[in-house]
TrEMBL record:
Residues 83-322 form the DAHP synthetase I/KDSA domain. GO terms for molecular function: 3-deoxy-7-phosphoheptulonate synthase activity. Residues 1-67 form the DAHP synthase ferredoxin-like domain. Its EC number is 2.5.1.54. It comes from Veillonella absiana. This is 3-deoxy-7-phosphoheptulonate synthase. Keywords: Transferase.
């Protein structure tokens, strides 16, 4: 339930209302707006008399919420959330490009990729040290030593880093990582979601292979319920009946998530199709569709990559692509300003 207050409500009456709701076991989530204030009421509000609350002098209106996600709901938080990743802002009109290798392999590879993507306009370095793979015989990542290589690249280039954590036991290695990535296969690993929720570190939450929008936002709700509201959603393609591509990139997720939630959403065109030649059109479609950023895999020698080489761009290909992305982004920004 959302209680919209009148402007400049009497503070004594407001305190009385808050005490009354708290005594009934509800959790109050206040949001201060420029011209009004609202209170998000979390709990089973079915027994709460809407008309009785609306009759209060300081209350403008009361709105019941049907969706089970509360903190991630735009109705609770009308303004866009802006997530700060080591000084790089995402959401609320801020656009970010995360780029780098799928998997960290060698110091030379990481540094070379980091320098190349930064020169091309990327603002965050991505790289996997812990890799969830379908086959137990595939390369599983370098582990903690891989994170050390990413941190070294961060010191070399100044780019903040994002890397995937697969289990709560690994969190001790991520102190110097700027953003924690929750992969598609872990989207409903509720123990992991709760643990990263206890941290005050930005989280990149990827959509599960077959997850609905509501399930995705409920996963974000798990993180937010523990106090961490610095979440960026990432659409990376869902499993459909189509077999020509690795996954199907759901571009519809961009406007739908913006409608349902205040959290920023970025797109991962590399994992969607699984083919490097598809990355450019999917990146431009995502940018034109209003995404808050992109995550693109870049490898200095994709043919020798230990993980997902076929979907990675070479640095020169990435450089050519970012020129078009920024041109498309300019069009989107101008359109929004002229609304």
């Amino acid at each position: 339930m959302i209680i919209t207050l009148k402007q400049n409500p009497d503070q004594a009456q407001l305190q009385d209302l808050q005490n009354w709701l708290t005594n009934q076991g509800f959790v109050i989530h206040p949001v201060e707006g420029a011209n009004y204030s609202i209170m998000g009421i979390i709990g089973d509000t079915s027994s709460l008399d809407k008309r009785a609350v609306e009759s209060l002098e300081i209350v403008d209106k009361v709105t019941r919420i049907q969706e089970p996600f509360k903190k991630a709901n735009r109705k609770f938080h009308p303004d866009d959330t802006i997530v700060d990743v080591g000084g790089v802002k995402i959401g609320g009109g801020h656009f970010a490009i995360m780029a780098g290798p799928c998997s960290v392999e060698t110091p030379e590879q990481v540094i070379e990729c980091a320098r190349a993507v930064k020169e091309a306009g990327a603002t965050i370095l991505r790289g996997g040290a812990f890799k969830p793979r379908t086959s137990p015989y595939s390369f599983q990542g370098m582990g903690p030593s891989g994170l050390e290589l990413l941190v070294a690249a961060k010191k070399e280039t100044g780019l903040p880093i994002v890397s995937e954590v697969m289990d709560p036991s690994q969190l001790e290695y991520f102190d110097d990582v700027d953003m924690l990535q929750i992969g598609a296969r872990n989207m409903q690993n509720f123990t992991l979601l709760k643990e990263v929720g206890k941290l005050r570190k930005p989280v990149l939450l990827k959509r599960g292979l077959s997850a609905t929008y509501e399930e995705w936002l409920m996963a974000a709700e798990y993180i937010m319920s523990e106090g961490n509201e610095q979440i960026v959603l990432c659409e990376r393609g869902i499993r459909t009946f189509e077999t020509k591509t690795r996954n199907t990139l759901d571009v519809t997720a961009i406007p739908m998530v913006h409608e349902l939630s205040h959290l920023p959403i970025i797109m991962d065109p590399s994992h969607a199709a699984g083919m490097s030649r598809m990355v450019r059109p999917l990146s431009l479609a995502s940018t034109g569709g209003g995404a808050d950023g992109l995550m693109i895999e870049v490898h200095n020698d994709p043919s020798k990559a230990l993980c997902d080489g076929p979907q990675a761009l070479r640095p020169d290909q990435f450089s050519d692509l970012t020129k078009d992305i920024f041109a498309m982004r300019d069009i989107v920004v101008k359109h929004n300003l002229n609304k």
